[in-house]
Amino acid sequence: MTEEIKKINAWPFQEALKLVKRFEKAPPQKGYVLFETGYGPSGLPHIGTFGEVTRTTMVRRAFQELSDIPTKLFCVSDDMDGLRKVPENLPNQEMLRENLQKPLITVPDPFGTSPSFGAHMNNRLKNFLDTFGFDYEFKSAAELYKGGVFDEKLLLALERYDQIMKIMLPTLGPERRETYSPFLPISPKTGRVLYVPMKSVNAQKGTVVFDDEDGEETELAVTGGHCKLQWKPDFGMRWAALDVDFEMYGKEHLVNGKIYSDICRVLGGNPPVQYNYELFLDEKGDKISKSKGNGISMEEWLRYANPESLSYYMYLTPTRAKRLYFDVIPKSVDEYYTFLGKYKGQSEERRENPAWHIHGGKVPDVHLPVSFALLLNLVGASNSHDKSVLWGFISRYQPDLTPQNAPELDKMVGYAINYYEDFVKPNKKFRAPSEKEKAALIDLAGKLEKLAKTATAEEIQNEVYSIGKEHGFEDLRGWFQALYEILLGASQGPRFGSFVQLYGINETLGLIKKAISGESLAA
User: Fold this and answer.
1) Rg of the Cα trace of the chain?
2) For residue 45, what pLDDT is reported?
3) According to the model, what pLDDT value does residue 80 have?
4) Judging by beta carbons within 10 Å of its beta carbon (0-12, 13-18, 19+), is residue 68 exposed, middle or buried?
5) Are strands 183-185 and 227-229 parallel, antiparallel or unpaired?
C-alpha cells in the first residue's frame, strides 16, 4: 500500500483505513474480512436497501485496494422476526392478519409463489441485488438460528443472561423492565413469537421457562430455532457469531450502537468498525417513510435515470441529511457523467473520483455529448415525446451521433421524455415578457437571424450576453432567468447558448417571436 493511497480523502477509503488498522497485527482468523448489511423482509426491497448495500460495497472495494486480505459481504435477512403489522400494499390482507406475530418464514406467502412470506421477500431481495450486480452472500436469519450457527452464542447468552439484562434494563421504561427478556420464545402451540417474561433460565440445560399464551408453563430450548433474540441483543449476537468486521447503519440506530457493541463483547466478540449515515428527506424536509410513501422510490428513480446516477447520489456525503426527491435527479445524472468524463484523464486522483467507487475501478469510457438538463429542455421546447423527432435535433447538432453509436445518449433521451412528461410538464409556468424584456427579445431575434446556422454555443452565448448588457440588465442572471421563464416555462435551465445550438437557431427564433406576439408557448 503506497503512501499516496493512504492519503485519499474519499470517505470509503477513510473507512477502509480503519479496517486496515484493525488487522495491523494479524489477519482475521476466519481468513477474510466480513462486511455485513441487514434487511427487514416485512416489506419490499427499497431505495434504502440499495443505498446501504451500495455504500458498504464502496468501502469493501476501497479496502481491497488497501489490503490483500480476502473479503466477503453477507446480506442478512431478518426473516425470523414476527409479522408485527400487515403492509397495506400486499394482497390477502385477512390471511396476513390471521398470521400476525408469527415468524416471517412461517407466514404463508400472500402472493402464492413461495413457501412463505419470508421466502418470497428473500427472493425479491436476491433478485433486486442481482439486478445491480452486487457481489454478496445471502444469509437467512431463520436458517442461521435453525441450522445451529447461532447456538454457541445463544447458550453463552443464557450463561451471561444477567450481564445482558444489566445492559438492556437501563434503556427501558419502568413497565417494560418488569416483563423484558432478551429471549423471545416461539410458542410450540400457536407458532407466534412471544414477548413474555422468563420465569427462569437454565444455562446448563440450555432452556428458558415461561408461560405460553394459554397460561401453561413451558420449557423450551433456546437453540435450534425455538427462540430468537430481541432485535437489539440480536444485533450484537450476530456480530459476535459471524465475526462481523464492518457494518453501517442509519441515524436511527446511532443511539443503540453502544448497546450492540456491549452485547457483542459480552458474547465474546469484537464489535465491528461501524459507520453511521444520515437519513433521506422528502421535498418538505421530512424524514422519508416507507409507510407514508413520501420521497421517491427505486422504481421511480429508474424510470427517470440510470442506476449509476443513483449510486452517485448515494456516494455523496452519506453523513449529511439529503433530500431524495424528483428534482435531485437531473443534477445527479449530469454530475455523474461529468465525473465519468474526467476519469480518463486522471491518474492518482482517480480514487477520489466518485466514478471509481461506483464502478469499482472498472470505469467505462463513456461520454455524454448532450447533458440531461439540455435534453429536458429539448423535450419541452420541441413539444415532442417521440425519440425519433428528438434525435432529429441531436443529429443536426452533431451529425455523427446516432442511437446505434451513442446508446448511452439514446437511453438518456428516453429517461428525459419520462421525466419531462411526469414531472416537468405539469409544473411549467410560462409568463409574458415585460416591455423591457420584449425590447431585448426583439434585439436578440435580430442578432440570431444574422448568425450563421453553424454558430457555436459560445458565439450564441456571447450574443445573448451582450444583448442583456445593452438593455440594462445589471444582474445578467436576471436576464437569463427571464429567457428561461418566458421561452421554456422554468426559472432555470442549461447554458442558453448550448440550448439554442441543440434546438436550432430558427426554432429558437420561433419561440421568441411567439413570446413577442403574445402567443402562448405552453405545450
Assistant:
1) 29
2) 79
3) 97
4) exposed
5) antiparallel
The residue type of 120 is: H
**Residues of the chain where predicted confidence (pLDDT) is lower than 70:** 1-3, 288-295, 522-523
Phi, psi of 153 (to 5 degrees): -75, -30
**Global pTM?**
0.92
State the Cα–Cα distance between residues 300 and 50, nearest whole angstrom.
Answer: 14
Q: What is residue 295's predicted lDDT score, i.e. its pLDDT?
A: 67
The SS3 of residue 243 is coil
Q: Which three cell numbers stand for residue 20?
A: 486496515
Which residue type sits at 179?
A: T
Longest dimension (CA), the chain: 95
pLDDT per residue as tens digits for the range 158-215: 999 999 999 999 999 999 999 999 999 999 999 999 999 999 999 999 999 999 999 9
Measure Cα distances from 469 to 258, 431, 465 in Å: 61, 22, 7
Cβ–Cβ < 8 Å for 363, 340 = yes
The number of angstroms, rounded, from the C-alpha of 220 to the middle of its chain's C-alpha atoms is 41
Between CA 481 and CA 214 the distance in angstroms is 72
